Amino acid sequence: MPDLAAPLIAWYPRIARDLPWRRPGFGAWGVLVSEFMLQQTPVTRVVPHLEAWLDRWPTPAALAADAPAEAVRQWANLGYPRRALWLHRAATEIRDRHDGVVPRDVEALLALTGIGDYTARAVAVFAYGDRHPVVDTNTRRVLARAVDGRSQPGPPNTRDLAAMTLLLPEDDTDAAIVNAAAMELGATVCTARSPRCQACPLADRCAWRAAGHPDTGDERRRQARYEGSDRQARGAVLKALRDAPDHGIRHDDVLTDWPDTLQRDRAIDSLIVDGLAEVSEGLLRLPS
DNA sequence: AATGCGTGGTT
DNA sequence: TAACCAAGCAT
C-alpha cells in the first residue's frame, strides 16, 4: 500500500478550514456537541447552532439540568431531532456516571446514548489527542478510491477501522492529523460527485485515478422522497410543538391544515414512541 | 443488516 | 425539477 500519511500531513495544515472545534482548547464537551450536530448535517449549518448551544449550556451538567424539551427547542431545524434527545441523555449519563467530565476511553464513550463507532473515536482523538482510527463517510470514500480503486465506498463495516489503522503513524499527534486530513480531503476535494483530483495530495498514488476513474457501480440505496413523506409530517408536527407554549396544545389543534389527517396522527404517535413528544393533561407537548 | 430518521443546499 | 448529498445512530 502506498504511503498516504505523509502527503496528508503535509497537505492538511495548508488547507484546513478554520472550524470552531479545531480551535486549540475548544474542550471535550464542545467537540462532543459538534460531533452530535455533524451526524448527517453539513458543516455550514452546524457552526452557528453549535456556538449558540455552548453559550447556553457550557457543560454537560448545565444541559442535564434543563428539560429535554429545551434541548429539542434549541436544536431548531438541524434535522434528526432524536439527536437532541440523545445528546441530552448523554449529558445526563456524563453527569451521573463520569462526574460531569466527558469520558476519554472509547469504551466509555460508546456506552453513551447516541454515540457509535465514529463519534466515540472522534471525541477520543480530536478532544483528547489519543491514537485511534476515526472513520466517517468521507474517509471511507477516500480509502475506497485511493486504496481500492473504487468510485464510492460500500456500506460501512468493521474492516473500515482496521484499514484506517494501517495508515496511522505511531505518533499520537500525527495520527490525529491523518484522521482529520482524510475527512477534510473527502469533504472538500475527494467529494462524492465531482472530485477535484488536480487539488488532491494523493493524486499521484490514487488507485481509482490510475485506473481512469472507472464507474465501479457502488451505488447507494436511493434516498426516499421527502415531499409528502411521514418524515416531513413528523418534522412539521415537531416544529408546531417547538413553537407551542410549554404546557402544550390540544391534539386536534396540531397542524390543522395538514392535508392527510391519518398521516398527521401517525406522525404524532411515532413522535410519542420516540420520546420526542408526550401527552400531559390532554395536551401534546415536548418531553419534560 | 436493512430500515427509518430532517432539513436545506446543489446539480 | 427531481434527485442527490450531507463528520451516523439505534433498532
TrEMBL record:
The organism's superkingdom is given as Bacteria
Q: What is its EC number?
A: 3.2.2.31
What keywords are assigned to this protein?
Answer: 4Fe-4S, DNA damage, DNA repair, Glycosidase, Hydrolase, Iron, Iron-sulfur, Metal-binding
As one GO molecular function, the record gives: oxidized purine DNA binding
Extract the Pfam families matched here.
EndIII_4Fe-2S, HHH, HhH-GPD
Required cofactor names: [4Fe-4S] cluster
Residue ranges of every copy of the HhH-GPD domain listed in the record:
37-188
Q: Where is the composition biased (Basic and acidic residues)?
A: 215-232
- The kind of enzyme this is, by top-level EC class, is hydrolase
> Cell division among the record's keywords?
no
Per the record, what are the reactions this protein catalyses?
Hydrolyzes free adenine bases from 7,8-dihydro-8-oxoguanine:adenine mismatched double-stranded DNA, leaving an apurinic site
SUPFAM superfamilies for the chain: DNA-glycosylase
Keyword hit for Metal-binding: yes
Q: Which GO terms describe its biological process?
A: base-excision repair; mismatch repair
**What InterPro entries does UniProt report for this protein, alphabetically?**
DNA_glycosylase, Endonuclease3_FeS-loop_motif, Endouclease-III_FeS-bd_BS, HhH-GPD_domain, HhH_base_excis_C, HhH_motif, MIG/MutY
Segments carrying the region annotation (Disordered) are 211-232
Q: Which PROSITE patterns match?
A: ENDONUCLEASE_III_1
Q: Which CDD domains match?
A: ENDO3c
Give the family, as the similarity comment puts it. Answer: Belongs to the Nth/MutY family.
User: Mind telling me what this protein is named?
Assistant: Adenine DNA glycosylase
